[in-house]
Amino acid sequence: MPMTSVSANLDTTSRADEFIALDERYSAHNYHPLPVVIAEASGAWVTDVDGRRYLDFLAGYSALNFGHQNPDLIAAATEQLGRVTLTSRAFHHDQLGPFCQELAELTGTDRVLPMNSGAEAVESAIKLARKWAYQVKGVPENRAEIIVAGSNFHGRTTTIVSFSTDEEARAEFGPYTPGFVVTPYGDADAVEAAITERTAAILVEPIQGEAGVVVPPADYLPRLRRLCDERGVLLIADEIQSGLARTGELLASAHDGIRADLYTLGKALGGGILPVSAVVGSDEVLGLLQPGQHGSTFGGNPLACAVGRAVIRLLSTGEYQQRSLELGAHLHQRLGELVGRGVSATRGRGLWAGVEIAEGGPSGREASEALASRGVLCKQTQDTTLRIAPPLTISREDLDEGVDAIVDVLGS
Ligand SMILES: *Cc1c(COP(=O)(O)O)cnc(C)c1O
C-alpha cells in the first residue's frame, strides 16, 4: 500500500511508518485509517508516537463524548479493576443491579438488557421485537417483519448487514437474513405503506450518523410514533451514536418530542474505556426474555457496569447536554458561514455536524488528510462528508482552533 502524504510521515525520524507497516502486514484490511499513530490522549487532545499533538474531532464516533482519560471514568474503572472484573452471568455481582436501576431511571424506562458492542444491542432488540410479535401481537411464527430505513447503519453482523443499503458493507456476506423491509429515510408515507399485520417493529436512527449526520424532517419521528401506536408496532430508536448527550439531549429522539418502546445504547456508555451497550425499554418487551433465551459472557460484567454507572453519573447532571447545546450552536454558526464558500451544506444537532464538501473541492479523504496535517483529526463519512464530533468536554478555544483549520482546508 502506498503511504499517504501527511507531513508526519515525510519526516524521516518518524516512528509512525513502522507501526503502520505492522498494521498493514498483520491486521485485516477492513479499515483505511489516516496515517497517524496515536500513543497517548487526554481530554480533546491526542499525541502521536512522534510527540505531535492533534485535536480529536471524531471522539471515537461519539464513544469518547466525555473526552479521553476522563478522570471520573478512569477512577471508576481503576477502582473496579482492583475489585472484580468478571463473574459471568452465572452469578450475581454488586454492580449489575445498580447499573440497570440507574440506567432505567436515567432513560425513563423499566428494564435494561446489557450487552457489549452496539451491533449486539441492535441484534438483541431485533430478537426482542420478534419475540414480542409472536407472544404479544400474535404474528405467526417466523413471519415477523421489521421496517428499517435506507442508508441505515446499525452494525456489522450478518443479520444487520442483511438490511444495509451500503453495497460495500453487504456484498458477498450473504445469504442474507430475511424479515426486513427497507423504506427511504425520512419518508413516513413509505413506512405507513409498508406496515402489515406481520410488522413487529420500526427500527430507526433518530439522526443517521454514518450516512452523514442526516437529520430527518421534523414530522418523521412523530409520525412513526403515531403509526406504531395506531397499528400495534414497536418503535426501536438506535441511539448508539446519537444518544447520551451528543445532540444536546440525553436521547436525540427527545428533540422530536417522542419516546421509543426500545432504545439501543452503546458507544459513550462505555466511556471510551471498554465496549458497553444495552437495550432499554418497557417491561412489556424486555420482560419477555426467560433464562436461557439470550445471553453474553461479558455482557453486564462488573467492570462494564462500574464504568457505565460513572457515565450515568456524568449524564445525570445535564452538564454535558448543556455543553453540547451551547458549543453546538457555536459550531453550527461557524460552519454555516462556509456554506457557499467551499461547503455546500451543513447538518446536525448539538456538537455533531456533517459538513458537505462543495463540488470541485477536495474529496472527504483528502480533506481529512489535510486536516490531520493541520493537527485536527476527523474522518469523512461517505465520499464528500466530514463528520465533526469533538468530545463534549472540549473548550470553546480548542473548538475554534479546530474550526479554523476546517475553514483553511475547505473555505474558498
Ligand atoms: C456504531 C453504531 C452501531 C454499532 O456499534 P458497534 O459497537 O460498532 O457494534 C450501531 N448503530 C449505530 C447508530 C452506530 O452508530
From TrEMBL:
Q: Which GO terms describe its molecular function?
A: ornithine aminotransferase activity
EC id: 2.6.1.13
Pathway note = Amino-acid biosynthesis; L-proline biosynthesis; L-glutamate 5-semialdehyde from L-ornithine: step 1/1
Q: Which PROSITE patterns match?
A: AA_TRANSFER_CLASS_3
Q: Which cofactor does the UniProt annotation name?
A: pyridoxal 5'-phosphate
Which InterPro entries does this entry report, sorted A to Z?
Aminotrans_3 (IPR005814), Aminotrans_3_PPA_site (IPR049704), Class-III_PLP-dep_AT (IPR050103), Orn_aminotrans (IPR010164), PyrdxlP-dep_Trfase (IPR015424), PyrdxlP-dep_Trfase_major (IPR015421), PyrdxlP-dep_Trfase_small (IPR015422)
Q: What class of enzyme is it?
A: transferase
Query: Keywords for this entry?
Result: Aminotransferase, Pyridoxal phosphate, Transferase
Q: Which protein family is it in? A: Belongs to the class-III pyridoxal-phosphate-dependent aminotransferase family.
This protein's name:
ornithine aminotransferase
| Protein's organism | Saccharopolyspora griseoalba
